[in-house]
Target: Divalent metal cation transporter MntH
Amino acid sequence: MDNNKNPKKKGLIHYANGRSLEEINGTVEVPKGKGFWKTLFMYSGPGALVAVGYMDPGNWSTSISGGQSFQYLLMSVILMSSLIAMLLQYMAAKLGIVTQMDLAQAIRARTSKSLGIVLWILTELAIMATDIAEVIGAAIALYLLFHIPLVYAVFITVFDVLLLLLLTKIGFRKIEAIVVALIMVILFVFVYQVALSKPDWLGVAKGLIPTPQTFSSSPEIGGMNPLQGALGIIGATVMPHNLYLHSAVSQTRKVDHDDEEDVARTVRFSTWDSNIQLSFAFIVNSLLLIMGVAVFKTGAVKDPSFFGLFQALSDTSVLSNGILIAVAKSGILSVLFAVALLASGQNSTITGTLTGQVIMEGFIHMKMPLWLRRLVTRLISVIPVLLSVAMTSGQSAIKQHEALNTLMNNSQVFLAFALPFSMLPLLLMTNSKEEMGDRFKNSFLVKLFGWISVIALTFLNLKGLPDSIAEFFGANPTPAQTDMANIIAYVLIVLILALLAWTIYDLYRGNKRVVSGSDK
Model:
């Protein structure tokens, strides 16, 4: 890598091939010889930035709808998704700390330029898909809290770039603290609402054990069966951009790479940080599903969009017990829900922008200021949201809500495309002795569960692709539209598998170059 003293650096957009997120790379000092908790506190933060992606607005409707339709059946899916997330994020952080490269840089260093561009475009689409969910979530929260018309609320979300500009001036530890604070707001809101609802905790515990019915294609409730509900939760939980982000922000702590013990300590405490924060994400997602079961009467909420959920929290006829009904009359339940939604969207703004910079620098060696990166991504993301609002402006409120909800759900299909291309290279590189060394390469159990996770998630994502494509035709596609969706899905599956084969081949050749280089 170069030293980034390229004369082109003076422009807004310039060449970059240096350290990952160089402005914050290695900037956080960590104590040595201190107690476990003090040391853990100094390493804590990157895990929170990653955990945000596991509780963004895209998770909300899938978890709440799953609970309302199938009771606690899908709790086991949230648990399995969280455990897989912990495994993948551990590998991502370890890759960054040990190799001093983020995932995008590591892939690009071992693949061709043309493949790097293709993978960059795929990952950009995934980031924009999550950004669409954040635009919708934040705009709806502004509309619900302040009665700002949706079109104006969408435009206001563009100005969160000013928030990002402010945050870049205050230091990375303070950004981590703000993210943790917003996570605590979200956690408090849902703990409060679930505590009021007095859920069946024995049913919750039983739901954590998977059964054949968990992935069954029947019964169908509210247009969704358990398999579709499970795929929705998995798709909204394990996201590719989090792997790129973690491999970069794990390098913010100052590490002596000549001291193997210091590297090992950083890996160990980064893993603790990640697992603790992802446990909070698991709790939030579990609370969302429990809300669907315990707060609402089964099947009572016909509108699963954020509008419908907000309205339901103040509608005493759909709530499940007397205490909730009494509190709902004050409007506090629905207001808290909107506040949590706004906090979730703002959190994802910070992490999405950092991830965008990581993949742009890593895959195509191009860099721009974070505020400009955010502005470009957000302006592109608001276009489909504005189109959706404009096209349904003359229709009923429910039609408008459904259109936004459908757009948010449909945008998540890009995550299914991009996920295998981050998971598979991550697993292959962290399995490699040449990449990681004897001490830091994956153990046998990590390899085993890693392969099971990668294969299972790739299979489930591809399996759910025909249904995801069919949803683009509306809630009730015709047989001809269903056939068309299947054809499109199968063509895409073939293309994805072919691109995966290309990626594996390039990585294999790249690894051989690493081996031959180390032998010289």
Q: What stands out?
A: The chain has one domain: 18-413.
